Amino acid sequence: MKKNWPLWEVFVRSKNGLEHRHFGSLHAADADMALENARDVYTRRNEGVSIWVVESKDITASNPEHNGELFEPAQDKVYRHPTFYDLPDEVKYM
Amino acid sequence: MNKEHLYKYILGIADNSLILGQRLGELCGHGPNLETDIAGTNISLDLFGQSRSYYQYAAKLIGNGATEDSIAMLRNEREYINVLLVEQPNTDFAYTMARQFLFDVYHLLMLQELQKSHDVTLAAIANKSIKEVSYHLRFSSDWVKRLGDGTEESHQKMQDAIDGLWTYTDELFHQTDADKAMVAEGAGVDVKELKDSYYSKVTKVLAEATLETPESKWFQKGGKNGVHTEHLGYLLSDLQYMQRTFPNMEW
Amino acid sequence: MSEEQIKDLEEQFEARIARDEKIEPKDWMPEKYRKTHIRQMSQHAHSEVVGMLPEGNWITRAPSLRRKVALLAKIQDEAGHGLYLYSACETLGISRDELYDQLHSGKAKYSSIFNYPTITWADMGAIGWLVDGAAIINQVPLCNTSFGPYARAMVRVCKEESFHQRQGYEIMIKLMQGTPEQKEMAQDALNRWWWPSLMMLGPIDAESVHTEQSMKWKLKRKSNDELRQQFIDQTVPQAELIGLTIPDPDLKWNDEKGCYDFGAIDWDEFWQVVKGHGPCNKERMNARVGAWERGEWVRDAAVAYAEKKANKNINKAV
Questions:
Q1: Per the CB < 8 Å rule, is B153 touching C56?
Q2: Cα distance between residue C75 and residue C96, in whole Å
Q3: Nearest beta carbon to residue A64 from set C27, C97, C300
Q4: Could you give the percent of chain B with pLDDT greater than 90?
Q5: Each residue of B46-58: pLDDT tens digit?
Q6: Which of B238, C57, C84, C162 is most buried (most C-beta within 10 Å)?
Q7: Alpha carbons C110 and C113: distance in angstroms, whole number
Q8: Angle at B247 between CA B242 and CA B251, to 5 degrees
Q9: Could you give the ipTM of this predicted complex?
C-alpha cells in the first residue's frame, strides 16, 4: 500500500491587524495535522499569530488564459480613481 | 535550602529533557517525511533549550567553574539521574511517539506544579516550558491516536510500543531523597500526587486510540538512582565524545 | 495548436521574461521551461534533503549544547528548504512522491558535495562556512528568477540561511582560537572541503550544458566561472583573517585583474563523484531510501486515520 498525503495551502497572519497571507504549502493527512505541520514548518521564527490551512484541491483558480476578459476591461475605467476628477487647487482636504 | 539537594533535584529534571532531546536529535533527517521530521526536531530543540536553562542554573549553584556543558557532558553514567523511559531507543516511529507521549503526559503535569515552586528560577523555567510541552503532548497524543486507530499494522506497532514502554512509567512517580527534601521545602513537586491523574489521562488517550492499557504491574526502576538500562551508555558515548576526547577546550 | 501559434506564444513568453515579468504556474509555458524548472528545482530540493545527512552525523556528538542546538536548527532549516522547493515543483504538476522516486532510483541528481564524509567536528564548521557560502552565492540571484514560486521559495530560503554560514564560520573561529589540536582540526577540514566547494559551483563554462538557456530564463544570472571567482575572492580573506591556509599553492592575488588566480580543479574527481563513485554516495542514498521505506506504514496509517475520521464526521452530519 502506498498512500500519499494531500497537499495543503498555508495562510499565516503575521500579527493582528494584518490579513492572512499565503505562505506556502505542505503535505498532511488531515486538517489537524496540516495545522500542526504549518506551525512547525512556517512559524518557527515567530512569523505568525494565526494560521489557516485549506486543501489545495479545494481552491478554485481563475484561468490565466482568460486574463484578457477578466482583468483588462478594468484598465481603462479611470473614473474609478480620484485623479480622474479636476478640482481647483484652492480646495483642501478632499 | 540544602544546596546539594537542590542541585540533584535540578539534575533530575534536566537530565530527562537532555536525554530525550538527544534521542529525538538522532532522528533528524530520518523522519517518515519532511513535515514530521521538522516537527520532531522542534521538540528536540525545545527539550535541549529547557535542559540548558536547568543546567545553567545548576552550574551557578555549584560554582567552581562548572558550566552547562560540564554538567551535561562530563558526568559518569551512574551520575545521570534521568528516568529509564527517556533513554529507550528509537526502535521505530511507534516507539518514538509512545515514549514521547508517556513522557509528555507526566512532563506537563509536573511542570504545572513546578511553576508554583518557591524557587523562583525553577518556577520561571517551568512557566516557560509549559507552553512548549503542551504542544509536545498534543503532537504525541495525536500520533498515538493516528497510529493506534490507523491501519492494522500501525495499530499492532503502537500497541507493541505501549506494551514495551509501560514498564518504565511507574518510575516517573518515584522519589529520591533530594526529591523528598525539595518537596518539604516547597520547592519541589510531589510526583506521587501526579500518579492517578497521569494514568487516567494516559488511559483516556489510549482508549481513543483503540489501544489496550497494559495490565502488567511489574515495573522497572533505577534511573533516578543512576542505575540505567544498557542503552544509556551508548547514548552518552556520543553525547560526551568531544568533551571526553578533547578535554578542557572551548568550542 | 499549430506550430506557428506555438512559436508565437513562445516569442511572447520570452518577451515577458525579458521584461522581468514573473511566470506563474498556470500561465502558458514552453514544455522545455517546465521540464527545466522541475529538474533544477527538484535537484535543489534533493540537495537540501540529502545535505541534512552529512551534518546530521554530528548532532549527537556536538561538543557543547550551544553548538548542538545551532546545528540542529540549521539542519532542520534544510528540511524546511527542501520542503519549500518541493512545493514549488509541485505547482508544475509533479508530486513530491514522484520526485522522491526520481531521487531514490538515482535518476535525479543532487549536489555532489554531500557525498563527502564528515569525519571531524571541524567539518561542521567547514560545511557551514564554505558549502553554505557557495550555496548563498548561487541562491541570492535566484530570488529574482523568472518562475514565481521558485523566486518566492528562494527569498524565504535566503532569509533563513543567513545564519547558516555564520554558524559555520564561528565554529572555525573558535577552533582557530583554541589549542594546536583544534587548529589542526580546522585546517584539515578546510583542506578536505576547499576543492569540493569550488566544484560545487558547477563545471567550467565551456562544459556547462545549460548555461545559455538558463541565463535567458533567469535561472542563472552569472556563469559558473564568475560565481566561482566571486566565492574565492570573498572566502580567501575570511580564511586569512582567522589564520587558515587555503590548500592551493597556486592561489595568488592578481593585481591587474583585481581577483585571485587559483590552481587547477580536479574535474575528473568531480565527474566521478557525480557518477556515483564518491566516498559516500551509497550511504547517502541508503539513508534516504531507508527513511522513506521505514516511514511508509506511518504515512499510510495517518491517511487511514484521516479517512476514518472523515467518515465519522459524515455519519454524524447525517
A1: no
A2: 20
A3: C27
A4: 98
A5: 999 999 999 999 9
A6: C84
A7: 9
A8: 60
A9: 0.97
